[in-house]
Amino acid sequence: MDPIAALRLSIACKNRQKDYYETFKITNDVRNKGDITYFVLQFLDILKTGLEDYLDDFTDKVNQYHYYQKKQSQLDLNHSSRTILETVIDYSLFYLEPITLTKLVELTHLSKSTISNHLNKLEKDGLVEKSKPGKNCLFHFKKMHNKMNPLLMQGFILLYVFN
C-alpha cells in the first residue's frame, strides 16, 4: 500500500474511531464464539470509506494538475524555467513532503546554480515568493486562482530549498 493510501486508511479509522472500537467490542463478545465476520465487514467498510476519500482527493489533484498545466502553457517561460515550475507543481500536488533544491536537481537534471537562477527569475516574475527563516530558503509557488475550485484559493504550495 502506498503511503498516501495508508494515510487515508488511518484517517478513515480515526474519523470512524467509535465504529472501529465498537467493532472490536462486538467481535470479542463471547456470544460470537470467535467469529470475526462482523469485524472483517466493518473494517472493509472503513477501508472503502478511506479509499473513496483518497480517490476524491486524487481526482481533485489531477484536476488541479490539468488546470496548472493549462495556465503554465500560457506563460512565456524558457524550457528550464518551465521544467522547474512543472516539477514544483507536480511534486507539491502528488507528494506529502516539501521539495528540496537537491530533489529539484535530481528530478530535473539541471545544476543547482541553474535552478537557483531560474527560481530568482520566477520570483521576479511573481510566480514564486522567497523567504529566509533560519538557514533555509523557502520558496512559495503562487497559485493561479481558479474560480471553479475553491481548494485552489488556499495558501501556497511550499518549496523548501536548503542552502
The whole-number mean of residue pLDDT values reads 77
Number of helices: 6
- Secondary-structure element order, as H and E? HHHHHHEEE
What fraction, in percent, of the residue positions are helical? 55-70%
Largest sheet: 3 strands, antiparallel
What's the β-strand tally?
A: 3
> What low-confidence regions span 5 or more consecutive residues with pLDDT below 50?
145-163
| Side-by-side strand order of the widest sheet | 1-2-3
* Beta-strand residue fraction: 5-15%
What is the 3D shape?
A: elongated
If you had to describe this structure to a student in words, what would you say it looks like?
This protein is mainly alpha-helical. It is built from six helices and three strands. The protein has helices at 3-15, 17-28, 37-73, 79-94, 101-108, 112-124; strands at 128-131, 136-141, 157-162. A three-stranded antiparallel sheet has the order 1-2-3, covered by helices on one side. The radius of gyration is 22 Å and the shape is elongated.
